[in-house]
Amino acid sequence: MATPNLPTPSDARPEVTGFFDGQTNTISYVVRDPASCACAIVDSVMDIDYAAGRIAFEHADRIIEHVRRHGLEVEWLIETHVHADHLSAAPYLQQELGGRIGIGERIVQVQDTFGKVFNEGTEFQRDGSQFDWLFADGDRYRIGTMEAFAMHTPGHTPACMTHVVGNAAFVGDTLFMPDGGTARADFPGGDARTLYRSTRRILALPEDTRLFMCHDYGPGGRDIRWETTVAEQRAQNIHVHDGAGEDDFVRMRSERDATLSMPRLILPSLQVNMRAGHLPPADDSGRRFLKLPIDAL
Prior knowledge:
Layout: E1 15-21, E2 26-32, E3 38-42, E4 47-49, E5 54-56, H1 58-69, E6 73-78, H2 90-97, E7 100-104, H3 107-117, E8 133-135, E9 140-143, E10 146-152, E11 161-165, E12 168-170, H4 192-202, E13 210-212, E14 227-229, H5 230-236, H6 246-257, H7 266-273
Parallel strand pairs: 3-6, 6-7, 7-8, 12-13
Antiparallel strand pairs: 1-2, 2-3, 4-5, 9-10, 10-11, 11-12, 13-14
Protein backbone atom coordinates (compact mmCIF):
# COMPACT_ATOMS: atom_id res chain seq x y z
CA MET A 1 0.00 0.00 0.00
CA ALA A 2 1.44 3.41 -0.96
CA THR A 3 1.66 6.17 1.60
CA PRO A 4 -1.25 8.61 1.09
CA ASN A 5 -0.50 11.95 -0.55
CA LEU A 6 3.11 11.06 -1.29
CA PRO A 7 4.92 9.79 -4.39
CA THR A 8 4.99 6.04 -4.92
CA PRO A 9 8.47 4.62 -4.21
CA SER A 10 10.39 3.80 -7.38
CA ASP A 11 11.75 0.38 -8.29
CA ALA A 12 15.36 1.50 -7.91
CA ARG A 13 17.47 -0.50 -5.47
CA PRO A 14 20.21 1.75 -4.15
CA GLU A 15 23.46 0.32 -2.87
CA VAL A 16 23.57 1.13 0.84
CA THR A 17 26.74 0.96 2.93
CA GLY A 18 26.47 1.49 6.69
CA PHE A 19 29.17 2.92 8.96
CA PHE A 20 28.64 2.17 12.65
CA ASP A 21 29.97 4.55 15.30
CA GLY A 22 30.42 2.65 18.54
CA GLN A 23 30.76 5.77 20.70
CA THR A 24 27.22 6.96 19.90
CA ASN A 25 25.63 3.79 18.46
CA THR A 26 24.90 5.76 15.29
CA ILE A 27 24.82 4.36 11.78
CA SER A 28 25.75 6.70 8.91
CA TYR A 29 25.05 5.67 5.34
CA VAL A 30 26.46 6.09 1.85
CA VAL A 31 23.54 5.64 -0.55
CA ARG A 32 24.71 4.98 -4.11
CA ASP A 33 22.81 5.06 -7.36
CA PRO A 34 23.71 1.69 -8.99
CA ALA A 35 23.35 3.25 -12.44
CA SER A 36 25.91 6.02 -11.87
CA CYS A 37 28.60 7.26 -9.48
CA ALA A 38 26.17 9.56 -7.64
CA CYS A 39 25.58 9.08 -3.93
CA ALA A 40 24.20 10.69 -0.79
CA ILE A 41 25.53 10.56 2.76
CA VAL A 42 22.95 10.23 5.53
CA ASP A 43 23.44 11.18 9.21
CA SER A 44 27.21 11.61 9.49
CA VAL A 45 29.10 11.75 12.80
CA MET A 46 31.77 14.11 14.09
CA ASP A 47 33.84 12.63 16.94
CA ILE A 48 34.03 14.52 20.22
CA ASP A 49 35.95 13.97 23.42
CA TYR A 50 33.51 15.95 25.53
CA ALA A 51 35.59 15.89 28.71
CA ALA A 52 38.63 17.29 26.91
CA GLY A 53 36.73 19.59 24.55
CA ARG A 54 38.36 18.06 21.46
CA ILE A 55 36.79 17.14 18.15
CA ALA A 56 38.05 14.76 15.46
CA PHE A 57 36.85 13.23 12.22
CA GLU A 58 37.86 9.56 12.30
CA HIS A 59 34.32 8.36 11.57
CA ALA A 60 33.85 10.88 8.74
CA ASP A 61 37.27 9.98 7.31
CA ARG A 62 36.12 6.36 6.94
CA ILE A 63 33.26 7.62 4.78
CA ILE A 64 35.57 9.85 2.75
CA GLU A 65 37.92 6.94 2.11
CA HIS A 66 35.00 4.80 0.93
CA VAL A 67 33.64 7.51 -1.38
CA ARG A 68 37.05 8.16 -2.96
CA ARG A 69 37.98 4.49 -3.26
CA HIS A 70 34.82 3.79 -5.24
CA GLY A 71 35.01 6.97 -7.30
CA LEU A 72 31.67 8.29 -6.04
CA GLU A 73 30.26 11.80 -6.41
CA VAL A 74 28.39 13.16 -3.39
CA GLU A 75 25.24 15.05 -4.32
CA TRP A 76 23.50 15.24 -0.93
CA LEU A 77 24.43 15.30 2.75
CA ILE A 78 21.14 14.43 4.45
CA GLU A 79 20.27 14.98 8.12
CA THR A 80 17.13 13.07 9.09
CA HIS A 81 16.67 15.43 12.07
CA VAL A 82 18.57 17.57 14.59
CA HIS A 83 20.30 14.79 16.49
CA ALA A 84 20.58 14.96 20.27
CA ASP A 85 23.12 12.16 20.71
CA HIS A 86 25.88 12.87 18.21
CA LEU A 87 27.40 15.79 16.35
CA SER A 88 27.10 16.04 12.57
CA ALA A 89 30.19 16.05 10.36
CA ALA A 90 28.29 17.43 7.35
CA PRO A 91 30.38 20.61 6.86
CA TYR A 92 33.63 18.63 7.00
CA LEU A 93 32.32 16.13 4.47
CA GLN A 94 31.04 18.92 2.26
CA GLN A 95 34.45 20.58 2.32
CA GLU A 96 36.12 17.33 1.29
CA LEU A 97 33.52 15.84 -1.05
CA GLY A 98 30.95 18.48 -2.01
CA GLY A 99 27.18 17.97 -1.94
CA ARG A 100 24.28 19.95 -0.51
CA ILE A 101 23.35 19.75 3.18
CA GLY A 102 19.61 19.16 3.61
CA ILE A 103 17.21 18.84 6.54
CA GLY A 104 13.47 19.13 7.13
CA GLU A 105 11.92 22.59 6.94
CA ARG A 106 10.74 22.38 10.57
CA ILE A 107 14.35 23.00 11.57
CA VAL A 108 13.22 26.58 12.12
CA GLN A 109 11.02 25.41 15.01
CA VAL A 110 13.94 23.52 16.56
CA GLN A 111 16.22 26.54 16.12
CA ASP A 112 13.70 28.81 17.79
CA THR A 113 13.28 26.45 20.76
CA PHE A 114 16.95 25.78 21.38
CA GLY A 115 18.09 29.25 20.43
CA LYS A 116 16.25 30.27 23.60
CA VAL A 117 17.61 27.35 25.65
CA PHE A 118 21.19 28.32 24.78
CA ASN A 119 20.49 32.07 24.98
CA GLU A 120 21.77 32.62 21.45
CA GLY A 121 21.92 36.22 20.29
CA THR A 122 20.32 37.78 17.26
CA GLU A 123 23.33 36.74 15.17
CA PHE A 124 22.06 33.15 15.33
CA GLN A 125 19.66 32.90 12.40
CA ARG A 126 16.51 30.89 13.10
CA ASP A 127 15.46 30.54 9.47
CA GLY A 128 17.31 27.36 8.47
CA SER A 129 19.75 29.37 6.35
CA GLN A 130 22.71 27.37 7.72
CA PHE A 131 21.52 24.49 5.51
CA ASP A 132 21.59 24.35 1.71
CA TRP A 133 18.13 22.84 1.37
CA LEU A 134 15.02 22.54 3.55
CA PHE A 135 12.78 19.60 2.67
CA ALA A 136 9.00 19.84 2.86
CA ASP A 137 6.71 16.85 3.13
CA GLY A 138 6.55 15.11 -0.23
CA ASP A 139 9.49 16.95 -1.79
CA ARG A 140 11.11 15.00 -4.61
CA TYR A 141 14.81 15.08 -5.40
CA ARG A 142 17.31 12.94 -7.28
CA ILE A 143 20.47 11.03 -6.48
CA GLY A 144 21.90 10.39 -9.91
CA THR A 145 19.18 8.56 -11.85
CA MET A 146 17.22 7.61 -8.72
CA GLU A 147 14.17 9.57 -7.59
CA ALA A 148 13.88 10.13 -3.85
CA PHE A 149 11.30 11.86 -1.69
CA ALA A 150 11.03 13.18 1.85
CA MET A 151 8.31 12.30 4.36
CA HIS A 152 7.65 14.46 7.42
CA THR A 153 7.62 12.00 10.33
CA PRO A 154 7.67 14.12 13.52
CA GLY A 155 7.17 13.03 17.10
CA HIS A 156 10.73 12.42 18.24
CA THR A 157 11.45 16.00 17.14
CA PRO A 158 9.34 18.42 15.06
CA ALA A 159 11.83 18.33 12.16
CA CYS A 160 12.16 14.55 11.71
CA MET A 161 12.05 13.37 8.10
CA THR A 162 12.15 9.92 6.54
CA HIS A 163 13.92 9.82 3.18
CA VAL A 164 12.68 7.24 0.69
CA VAL A 165 15.20 6.39 -2.02
CA GLY A 166 13.94 3.71 -4.37
CA ASN A 167 13.11 0.67 -2.24
CA ALA A 168 15.05 2.00 0.78
CA ALA A 169 13.90 4.37 3.52
CA PHE A 170 16.09 6.12 6.08
CA VAL A 171 13.93 6.62 9.15
CA GLY A 172 16.19 8.55 11.53
CA ASP A 173 15.09 8.00 15.13
CA THR A 174 11.41 7.42 14.38
CA LEU A 175 11.85 3.64 14.48
CA PHE A 176 14.46 1.30 15.92
CA MET A 177 14.93 -2.37 15.00
CA PRO A 178 11.83 -4.43 15.87
CA ASP A 179 13.24 -5.52 19.25
CA GLY A 180 14.11 -1.89 20.05
CA GLY A 181 10.74 -0.36 19.29
CA THR A 182 10.68 3.39 18.87
CA ALA A 183 12.57 6.51 19.97
CA ARG A 184 11.67 8.72 22.90
CA ALA A 185 9.23 11.59 22.43
CA ASP A 186 9.88 13.77 25.48
CA PHE A 187 12.37 16.29 24.08
CA PRO A 188 11.06 19.86 23.58
CA GLY A 189 8.74 19.70 20.57
CA GLY A 190 8.35 15.92 20.79
CA ASP A 191 4.99 14.20 21.14
CA ALA A 192 4.17 10.50 21.62
CA ARG A 193 0.85 10.60 19.76
CA THR A 194 2.47 12.33 16.81
CA LEU A 195 5.28 9.76 16.87
CA TYR A 196 2.79 6.89 16.71
CA ARG A 197 1.09 8.40 13.67
CA SER A 198 4.46 8.94 11.99
CA THR A 199 5.35 5.27 12.47
CA ARG A 200 2.07 4.22 10.85
CA ARG A 201 2.88 6.46 7.91
CA ILE A 202 6.25 4.76 7.43
CA LEU A 203 4.70 1.32 7.84
CA ALA A 204 2.20 2.11 5.07
CA LEU A 205 5.08 1.96 2.58
CA PRO A 206 5.30 -1.24 0.50
CA GLU A 207 6.05 -4.23 2.72
CA ASP A 208 9.33 -5.02 0.98
CA THR A 209 10.70 -1.52 1.55
CA ARG A 210 14.09 -1.75 3.26
CA LEU A 211 14.23 0.38 6.41
CA PHE A 212 17.56 1.70 7.68
CA MET A 213 17.91 2.78 11.31
CA CYS A 214 19.93 5.71 12.63
CA HIS A 215 20.76 3.89 15.89
CA ASP A 216 20.99 0.40 17.28
CA TYR A 217 21.91 -0.62 20.83
CA GLY A 218 21.90 -4.42 20.51
CA PRO A 219 19.05 -5.21 22.93
CA GLY A 220 19.69 -8.37 24.93
CA GLY A 221 23.30 -8.42 23.83
CA ARG A 222 22.60 -9.33 20.19
CA ASP A 223 24.89 -8.16 17.41
CA ILE A 224 24.37 -4.62 16.11
CA ARG A 225 21.91 -4.48 13.19
CA TRP A 226 20.48 -1.61 11.20
CA GLU A 227 18.44 -2.96 8.29
CA THR A 228 14.92 -4.36 8.44
CA THR A 229 11.76 -4.17 6.30
CA VAL A 230 8.29 -2.71 6.59
CA ALA A 231 6.88 -6.25 6.78
CA GLU A 232 9.22 -7.21 9.63
CA GLN A 233 8.41 -4.06 11.57
CA ARG A 234 4.66 -4.52 11.12
CA ALA A 235 4.90 -8.10 12.37
CA GLN A 236 7.46 -7.78 15.16
CA ASN A 237 8.08 -4.21 16.37
CA ILE A 238 7.53 -4.36 20.12
CA HIS A 239 5.89 -0.92 20.21
CA VAL A 240 4.08 -0.42 16.88
CA HIS A 241 3.39 -3.84 15.36
CA ASP A 242 0.09 -4.23 13.54
CA GLY A 243 -2.68 -4.14 16.12
CA ALA A 244 -0.79 -1.94 18.60
CA GLY A 245 -3.21 0.84 19.54
CA GLU A 246 -2.44 4.54 19.61
CA ASP A 247 -3.61 5.16 23.19
CA ASP A 248 -1.67 2.17 24.52
CA PHE A 249 1.42 3.40 22.68
CA VAL A 250 1.09 6.92 24.10
CA ARG A 251 0.72 5.52 27.62
CA MET A 252 3.72 3.20 27.22
CA ARG A 253 5.93 5.81 25.57
CA SER A 254 5.10 8.50 28.15
CA GLU A 255 5.75 6.18 31.10
CA ARG A 256 8.99 4.89 29.60
CA ASP A 257 10.29 8.34 28.66
CA ALA A 258 9.78 9.55 32.23
CA THR A 259 12.44 7.05 33.36
CA LEU A 260 15.10 8.05 30.81
CA SER A 261 18.01 10.35 31.49
CA MET A 262 19.17 12.92 28.96
CA PRO A 263 21.58 11.66 26.27
CA ARG A 264 25.23 12.16 27.21
CA LEU A 265 25.95 14.47 24.27
CA ILE A 266 22.64 16.33 24.03
CA LEU A 267 24.01 19.77 24.94
CA PRO A 268 26.95 19.89 22.50
CA SER A 269 24.95 18.03 19.83
CA LEU A 270 22.06 20.47 19.73
CA GLN A 271 24.30 23.53 19.62
CA VAL A 272 26.24 22.13 16.66
CA ASN A 273 23.48 20.36 14.77
CA MET A 274 21.04 23.27 14.76
CA ARG A 275 23.88 25.08 12.93
CA ALA A 276 24.10 22.34 10.26
CA GLY A 277 27.16 20.81 11.92
CA HIS A 278 29.09 24.05 12.39
CA LEU A 279 30.60 24.96 15.74
CA PRO A 280 29.40 28.19 17.37
CA PRO A 281 31.26 31.29 16.12
CA ALA A 282 34.61 32.17 17.68
CA ASP A 283 34.85 34.96 20.24
CA ASP A 284 37.20 37.92 19.96
CA SER A 285 40.14 35.74 20.99
CA GLY A 286 39.45 33.27 18.19
CA ARG A 287 38.30 30.50 20.55
CA ARG A 288 35.04 28.59 20.25
CA PHE A 289 32.87 27.55 23.18
CA LEU A 290 29.93 25.27 23.81
CA LYS A 291 27.48 26.38 26.49
CA LEU A 292 26.25 24.37 29.47
CA PRO A 293 22.84 25.79 30.42
CA ILE A 294 21.82 24.88 33.97
CA ASP A 295 18.43 23.18 34.56
CA ALA A 296 17.30 23.98 31.01
CA LEU A 297 16.26 20.46 29.95
